[in-house]
Specification:
The complex is a heterodimer. Chain A has three domains: 247 residues, Rossmann fold (3-Layer(aba) Sandwich), CATH 3.40.50.300; 80 residues, Arc Repressor Mutant, subunit A (Orthogonal Bundle), CATH 1.10.10; 65 residues. Chain A is globular, with a radius of gyration of 24 Å. Chain A is built from 16 helices and 16 strands. In chain A, the strands form four sheets. A six-stranded mixed β-sheet of chain A has the order 6-7-8-3-9-10, sandwiched between helices. In chain A, strands 2-1-4-5 form a four-stranded antiparallel β-sheet, with helices on one face. In chain A, strands 11-13-12 form a three-stranded antiparallel β-sheet. Chain A is α/β, with parallel strands linked by helices. By secondary structure, chain B is an all-alpha fold. Chain B folds into two domains: 462 residues, MetI-like (MetI-like fold); 35 residues. Helices cover 77% and strands 3% of the residues of chain B. Chain B has 22 helices and four strands. In chain B, the strands form two sheets. Chain B has a two-stranded antiparallel ribbon with strand order 1-2. In chain B, strands 3-4 form a two-stranded antiparallel sheet. In chain B, helix 2 runs parallel beside helix 6, helix 6 packs antiparallel against helix 8 and helix 15 packs parallel to helix 18. Chain B is globular and about 60 Å long. The N terminus of chain B is likely disordered. The chains are: A alpha/beta, B mainly alpha. The interface between A and B is medium-sized, with 32 and 32 residues.
Chain lengths: 437, 575
Amino acid sequence: MKTNNVLLEVKNISQKYGSGEKRFTAVQSVNLTLSEGEFVALLGPSGCGKSTLLRIIAGLQKPSEGRVLYRGEPLAGVNPHASIVFQTFALFPWLNVQENVELALKARGVAAALRTAHALDLLDRVGLDGFETAYPRELSGGMRQKVGFARAMAVEPELLCLDEPFSALDVLSAEALRGELLELWLGGSIPTRAILMVSHNIEEAVFMADRIVVMDKNPGRVVADFEVPLPHPRKHKSPEFQALVDQAYAILAGQTQPEAIELGSAPGEPGMTRALPEISINDLAGMLEHLTTQPQKAMDIYRLASELSVDSDHLLRLTEAAELMSFATIQKGDIALTPLGETFAEARILARKEIFATRIRRLPIFRWVINLLRASEGRKLKWGVIQSALELEFPPEEAEQQLNTLVDWGRYAEVLAYDDDEEMIYLEVSNGQTVPV
Amino acid sequence: MQLTFGQRFDRTRAGLRSLHFADWLALLILAALLYGGTWLAFRAPQVVEGPSISLDPRILPWYALFSLARMAGAYLLSLLFCLFYGRAAAYHRGAERVLMPLLDVLQSVPILSFLPVVLLGLSAIFPQGVAAEISSVVLIFTSQAWNLTFSWYQSLTTIPKELREAGAIFRLNTWLRFKTLEFPFGLISLIWNSMMSWAGGWFFLMAAEIFTLGQRDFRLPGLGAYLHEASVQGDLRAVAWGLGTLIFLIVALDQLVWRPLIAWSDRFKVEMVESDNPPSSWFYNLLHASRLARAANERVWAPLFDRLDLWLVRRFHPVEEGAQPGKARAWVSRALLAGLAGGLLFALSQSVLLLGRVSLAEWGQVGLGVLATALRVGVSLLVALAWTIPVGVAIGTSRRVAGFLQPVVQVMASVPATALFPVLLLFILRIPGGLDLAAVLLMLLGTQWYLLFNIIAGANAIPQDLKYTTALLRLSRSERWKTLILPALFPYLVTGAITASGGAWNASIVAEYVTFAGKAYQTTGIGSLIAQATTNGDYPLLLAATLSMVLVVVLINRLVWRPLYRLAEDMYRME
């Protein structure tokens, strides 16, 4: 379906927030071209700026640098040829299904009779006939998103932007809706010229898109851009499909680097501070235990995802944590347990905590916090103090998240203690007792 | 029971440092405005005779109608004010920094302190009778507008980001965005706050229909004036008639306006779940079932509205959020601002001069008055807490108790305490120190309901699981209160107490200075001082007393209530 008519060009776009020392780059120098007939998936972990990029492309947000060309014309304000399907549906709860769809038409000044006919036709096409007078709260998630699709298509957009449209749905509804969208798109029954879908689900992207643009975080940037040359309908189990999924995992999971590079530098020192992935330690242990059951104590990451039935975003955070703790190494989309990881997986609870504690003491960000606490009176510091120090390295929300993870891991390893009433973080001494105040 | 009181607290700001530049600016603007009124006062004509108020019960329907019209006028004014002010504050960062502290200050100005500014300002433009009539409406407005505005501002700032983005990507213009997004989103909270505003209006109706300013005596035909006159003459039969009419009016409004509105507004809930027992109203059901009403809606209203929508859509193109206004407009607004600032600066310097006329002894009185009133507010709050906690928990946790107590409480709460006050005075004034007691009682009567309704809501919201757990653990009664009920109630208690204490301060002006059966009674207090200063036309004292009271109330809000509210939100919110 792809033609050579360029629909959209993103030229050297950057998005920065904050000012002075606390200036952060959410999106850095992104270039992207979208042609007519293309279905492009924007894939990446949470926080890589893919939703921001989508909003910039739709014209909801002005980039700090760079520009967006639509059919060769620079974009000023909201793109009148684009529409969005939102992750949380964004339906107006007080309007019924038909009114929700009609609203988009009303805003363009379409007269009542025409509006109704068009809305009913669309609702019919997405399979919602009979539900015209229902209110969104009466519908299931899948049906709500169908209304979202009908509304977005009502204005006959040339460019349809999808902001993780299936991630708030249960597995079955999401699967069904993906198929229905593909049917509409491939059948050519909608006037849409191109689709841009933001996703953090690798299988979803390979299943639907013609091209996958992979983004990574810190700062948000494009790291890969490859075609999906498979004909529709695509089979999840086919070797070609799995090979592409494997490839995407290989890009996103990266390669295990020498320790110095892998661990990054401490906050305040030159170089990047490595952000801790947001995971639960229980999940990490669960994944490592699963790996010990494998013959070579190693496997393809995409297979791990389907066996543990977790989505790719979650799994990639777990593999990143395992890599960071030297519990596993990652090479070309495969994950392999290290002897340390094997010991951890097979150890009992106290031994696990000890191994965990030794490992996190090697992380520069932990060394930094521990030194900070040691240097302060009573070996304690207010949460807010550490957070503002971290804010020199990370944007405010990210800094809070990082500190949350730090405290969570530190508590598990019995390296740190935290008193929520006083919002005070303490250093625990090695025998597990808090230093008396 | 779903109540949204006291949402006026910014959780991120508390303590003294929250009282920054803008607060002081707001206080200064206020002082300047008050001064403007008093400047006019010195140039106003002398002695005005109001029409006499008849105590004949047969005239009551007319009086009731007049009062209702004034209230409705004031309410419309409040609504318009709230829509524009709230919007300006929510969408313009610069404006927000001045407007919100100003609102905080305005809501703690007692109604009588607005009187000279409003009345004399209007007298300068309109003939005497018209000016008095409009003043009355504006005075009622000052007891209705602030909480509405806070609620609207709060709604506008909490609209979910994705709904806003949907509005932008589907190119809703300002009108459609208001009609389909902002208004529906804020509606429920607006309705509950409207009910509160009307209650506030009834409370100060007497003060708004009969007022004395210096030598000038104003009385407007209406229910408030009737009740006041009846109590001045000590005519109990007339008091009973007036009270009966007032209660009838309030109940009728509740049944015919508010309940139907609440039942109707259930569809504007944002939650994506169906409610178990949606609010219902017999009158709403009647209207809903009526063919005539439905036909009118389908054939007349809906097409008419659609035409209006389309006309507006074609006429006005969507304005992007955060778009820069044109150069000409920017200059005009800059010039306006400069003019405003100049005028304010001048008035400010003059009001400082006016304050200079307040003698040291008078400042002493002001200080003493603030202390005395603070004490009364504290006592009334404690008494209210003492009875509302057990009763509220009983109603909130037991269906049986709620069944017979809830309706009683609702009717009692709907009667404005000021209307009952004369009857109480009849008995209390005979006791030594009677007015002190009466003042506390009036504050109590006026504000205890905020606490009670919040406690009922809080007790209602205690999760059943936790109740079972305490039962399974066989906790004793006192342990159950300590570990479950009081912590669960805490956020609701704070919310209720904030509204109650604010109300009590405002009530002090009618509680500490009363005329009854031809005699004026007064006690030491800032409210009494303000009422006297208004009556005597002592503007320097009025300005000093008002500013002191506002300062104290704002300080108490920032130093006591905000930190407590923050604590409640952080530690005790069950979500």
